[in-house]
Amino acid sequence: MPDGVTEGRNADLTLPRFDRDFACRPILDPAASLLTTASPKIVDTVRVAGEVVVADGRSTRIDVAALTAELAALSS
Known about the structure:
The chain has 2 helices and 4 strands. It is of the alpha+beta class. The chain has one domain: Roll (Urease, subunit C, domain 1). The chain has a 4-stranded antiparallel sheet with strand order 1-2-3-4, with no helix packed on it. Strand 2 (43-48) and strand 3 (51-55) form a beta hairpin. It is flat and about 50 Å long.
């Protein structure tokens, strides 16, 4: 993106938390850690077109408890 991230523009952004996965430690080179040892556990926040779709590692769009109950009902 030539102009970077600026207010008012749509952007998709993922913010990692390397402290959530011991495989990423020690963090001597964040880019190398992200590419070679990171797992989905490190995803903290995801914004898509300005909307937060993952916060604190959890989806803001899916009610996990309700989905789990629905799936459990299907299997019984």
